[in-house]
Design goal:
Strands 3-4-5-7-6 form a five-stranded mixed beta sheet. It folds into three domains: 204 residues, no CATH class; 82 residues, Single alpha-helices involved in coiled-coils or other helix-helix interfaces; 122 residues, Histidine kinase-like ATPase, C-terminal domain (Heat Shock Protein 90), CATH 3.30.565. It is 63% helix and 10% strand. The chain starts with 20 loop residues before the first helix and ends with a strand. The chain is built from 13 helices and seven strands. A hairpin with a 6-residue loop joins β6 and β7. The longest helix has 51 residues. It has 441 residues and is an alpha+beta fold.
Length: 441
Amino acid sequence: MATDYAPRTREHRPREHRVPPVLRAPFEGRAWRELTYVVFGLPISIAAFVLAVLTLSLGAGLLVTFLGIPVLAAGLALFRGFGVLERGRARLLLGLDVPEPRALRPARSGPLGRVGAVLKSGVSWRHLLYGILHMPWAIFAFSVSVVFWSFGLLSFAYPLYGWAIPQDDGAHGIQLYGGMHHEVYLDAPLETALTCATGLVLLLVCPWVTRALVSVDRLLVATLLSPSALDERVTELESDRGVVVDTAAADLRRIERDLHDGAQARLVALAMDLGLAKEKLTADPEAAARMVDEAHGEVKVALQELRDLARGIHPAVLTDRGLDAALSAVASRCTVPVRVEVELPARPAAAIEGIAYFTVSELLQNVSKHAQASRASVDVWETGGRLLLQVTDDGRGGADTSRGSGLAGLAERLGAVDGVLVVDSPAGGPTTVTAELPWRG
């Protein structure tokens, strides 16, 4: 699990209310939204339960005729649409944002492929299970909520309408009890006051009762109508694969451009110079010697460019001697003094080692080009099966991954291998960039 290296900031303190929560809860929009969710949830859950029972019974009964398979598939497809409705209702009224499941991807085209995809989808069956389980709870939640709110409102407002109740044998008020020898009416001022006070207490309690009830709805929606962990992992891997492919394509284009504009162009010019020197070898030996000498210098430059290009692909020192030596070589080319400290019990996987090397290389390039720093440091260590890199400089700060800079691309590349990049760079510095990678050694 990734460690959070984000800098600590001052927490935003919500506005303080002078009225206690228990007194203002009935007047807040949240209480009425949750009550609306419970009230409308009953007819929706009954319709979903009927559809679920019909789908299962009809589909199972028709399996012997092979018509049950498309019936089951059609019912499951309808429940996926029902899941969209329920997630939207939970998002609007409960503030519960549940991500949408992945769209179905049939293994083959045509109706049979779509039917097979629906039947094999665990998300579809969990939607059906939600339709079955939610109905009993919706009935209970509706009954409790409506009884509490209705009794609380009627009791609290009794003084407003109690006078309009018809009189019976001189009594004025609601009859609470009536027998052959004794009757009890709610007509005395003290009884009316107690009724009003009871209604007020119930109104203060009702929002919390409803909130406790919808917590179960939240759990059902989040558990049964959300994407499975496997679906989320597949989506994440697909996104990471896209990042890896794009990065590899960009690297290939960079290598092609460097070869075309650098070493290749220089070798072409070298071949032309050697050809001219060959022609002048007999007529003007001194000019030919000068041209060969210049060509010799061009060969050295071309070789150096090829070495730099090879180092950019994968440095030999990294393969032969590991991160400590490779990062020390990178630090020696930085424009500011860099302290390098590597403490590793062993070498990580070769791919992770390469990513760590290029991460530090790019970060030190940023220090050289943009930080205006006087010194920097690189620390590498292993903890909990993770490889951690930290590059710190005393420059001007202000680095941010959200501005579309090279740090954003670096964060994407690290994320493609389950890595994390955290930047702490306040204005004025110092800047600390922490990268965390899987060990996989």
